[in-house]
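Quick one: structure for this chain?
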Amino acid sequence: QFFNGKDWNEDGDPDNGIALHLKVAGQGFFHFMSLSAPYVVLPYPGDPPTQVTQYHNVYWFNPETMEPLINSPGHVRALE
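Got it. Here's what it folds into:
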């Protein structure tokens, strides 16, 4: 309730708040995954839609380079 109804981003509209328990070794990791997946995972546009490429159906790492994707636009958007 504390976070609801306040104009946190100063755009003139009241905002809604959410609280996540991100304690180390807690369940927060799984909540982050469920909140970020819609922003991060892009289905393959062809057939089959589950095909994994460098840009499609990946979450944590680029499968070709194993580069972490935590700084990808989807993960960053989820963290905002």
